[in-house]
Amino acid sequence: MMFRRGFILFLPRLVGLLVVACCSMSIVYMLACTPKGDNQQFALPRVHSPTVKEGYEAILQEQEEQHRNYIISLKKQIAQLKAELQGRTEQLKNMQNQYPDSLDIQLDHSKPEKAQANLLAFLRSQVDKAEVHSGVKLSTEYAAVPFESFTLQKVYQLETGLTRHPEEKPVRKDKRDELIEVIELAVGSLNKPDGVSKAKPRVYTASDFVEGIYRTEKNKGTLYELTFKGDAKHQFKKIVLFRPFGPVMKVKNENVNMADTLINIIVPLAKRASKFRQFMQNFREMGIQQDGRIHLTVVYFGKEQMNEVKSILENTSKSANFKNFTFIQLNEEFSRGKGLDVGARFWKGNNVVLFFCDVDIYFTAEFLNSCRLNTQPGKKVFYPVLFSQYNPSIIYGHHDSIPSLEQQLIIKKETGFWRDFGFGMTCQYRSDFINIGGFDLDIKGWGGEDVHLYRKYLHSNLMVIRTPVRGLFHLWHEKQCLDELTPEQYKMCMQSKAMNEASHGQLGMLVFKQEIETHLHRQKLSSKKT
After folding, report:
1. Which of 80, 268, 313, 347 has the fewest CB atoms within 10 Å distance of its CB?
2. Which helix (H) or strand (E) is 204 found in, with range?
């Protein structure tokens, strides 16, 4: 009882002590967190200092003064930044005045002299920006733009193009005309009097040309360095020329509405019912479900497996509620050109985009839009370069299993190649196909008919759009080269067969498989001995 009374009497004192302790801790914390001046440090008011209230007021006043100085400092920095920004803006305006914008050059028709001067200034700036007078720091070895070399007869090229030859005659007219113009310009420059020497100048000709190198930086221009024979042995003349690219200029700005543009996919076929089933799965997903503006024409040769093919087509029609298809049966030997020609001419509706396709092709909905966007009646036809798949059993031979088809369709050098020698898959309006004369129906069997049609378009006034596309794949299948083919057709077929199997590296691993296994076996024995 006495203990309880004592505790009750002591409790108010304990509470008071705790309150005092908390207040003291708060004051210490506030003073400890107060920013310190450059030459002094704040402390608790001592016994002989001003009162506690006056001490706090002094501390707060000092903090306010520091914050005011900090704000003044920030304002000064902001003003400096504004001044610097204004200076940079003036520099940019001066540069734009010196090297005007491409659209200014194009649109300023009211002052042709100024536009011409601006264009010349821009072209000179292209020389300054390119690697002509000095090198440019590059981030990696892949950033370097390589040169290609040439003589009067041949071009030695890294980008081998369709021919696959590391050296060739410049058969392309634009390349041939370009190099002839450059050599003639260099010869003219060498024969131009310098106005200093009184001796009779030597007359240079194209036969004095030894070699040249050139490279193109896509946004600047083409640099040429040409070497000619000099006046004595071991002496040479070097001419450096630069063809600056002009500014980018707007040519057209238009809206393109493809909502009602129908594509008629024409597939010639004989047998191959299992491949047609795979094709229809792709057609249903991409053509019917995702795109929807599509018609399918199947031109079938013979009667073997015909009922199975028709059943696949009809089942797809019922399950997908798809009625836009045509089935044409021909009782004759298979001819791809004949099948496509018959399918194209069978169409009786309005002018339509024709996509000539094969049963071993996989396409995406994005490709169908590319097909529409790159064709225009009377103006453009589309020849996409598709990605051809290598033999999956070789590519994935070291895997436990071959991935699904969708997982295989990856554009990498290990999985396939751009089929830039093939011209069979093409999009064009029916009117252009009819006007050009269609396929050469005298060509039978495999190959040749597509190249013949391609050349017809090249010889016409139509623009041929040739570009690799990411949504068009040639699925690997074993290729049979029949004995009935002509020697030229058989050679083309065998070349295509060789290229379809695997990359050089993968084929090399197969060729040296025994050597590799022997090496691994020796390594294993060596590790056991140690």
Report:
1. 80
2. none
